[in-house]
Amino acid sequence: MLLEIAVSFFLLVGAFFTLVGAIGLARLPDFYMRLHGPTKATTLGVGGTLTASMIYFTAIEGTSLHELLITLFLFVTAPVSANLLARAALRLRLRSRAPLPEASSAGRD
Amino acid sequence: MTRRWLPHPVTSCVLLVAWLLLNRSVDAGHVLLGALLAVVIPLAVRRFFQRPVRLRRPRAAVRLALVVLWDIVLANVSVARLVLGPSARLRPAFVEVALDVEHPVAVALLASIVTMTPGTVSCDPSRDRRRILVHALDVDDPDRLAREIKSRYERPLLEIFAC
Prior knowledge:
The complex is a heterodimer of chains A (109) and B (163). With 109 residues, chain A is an all-alpha fold. Chain A contains five helices and no strands. Chain A has one domain (2-106). In chain A, 79% of the residues lie in helices and 0% in strands. Chain A starts with a helix and ends with a helix. By secondary structure, chain B is mainly α. Chain B has two domains: 2-48, no CATH class; 58-161, no CATH class. Chain B is built from six helices and three strands; from the N terminus they run ααααβαββα. Chain B has helices at residues 2-5, 9-23, 28-44, 58-84, 104-116, 142-161, and strands spanning 93-98, 120-125, 131-136. Chain B has a three-stranded antiparallel sheet.
């Protein structure tokens, strides 16, 4: 019973933040702001789901820690893709609500 | 001798632990194979590292990891509120943060931390690695944001990498 409550709690937290990330991606007004949506979903959204998985499988099958690896891989890869997208957008000088930095600093490579 | 065969002890440890977690076992066979990979892979990618990574203060590293995890949780909640609230009220801004850290791995780590903590995405490190450009979703004081990033994440990184 306690196990079910704990697992459902973390699943709900994970699902909620993934949903918020998706909503952010859909409704924020410019590209740079939309970029914040998915990077958020991959932190608490995935984190909550993985915590639930760790608790459930540790209780059912004995220690389950390889979920930690998913976290590690995400922390290694997600910032890189976000960074590349942002750089590409700066290069194209996509419309932004925040004043864009001057070309001299944005176009550097 | 150790320098020669284990140029990156930290990377080697991470690889061994990752291999054991991936296989979900600590059998002698897996430990042996994992140890072999932990020696071979860093040697194979040695050229990608411009400077060796040495952790000066392991405890500071653990503390920084906990601070980052905690900030991710707190900031997720505040970003959720921003995303669900009226978006006309958001004040996005590009903030340039001048860097004191020099070690390329430390700069990469700082940029990753900034991206993973919600509300900020690091966009573009300058070629000379002296500044990074950060996009923030909602700021009232860009200078304070830059100071916060420097004091919360950069100072511990400076300690850890001691450069």
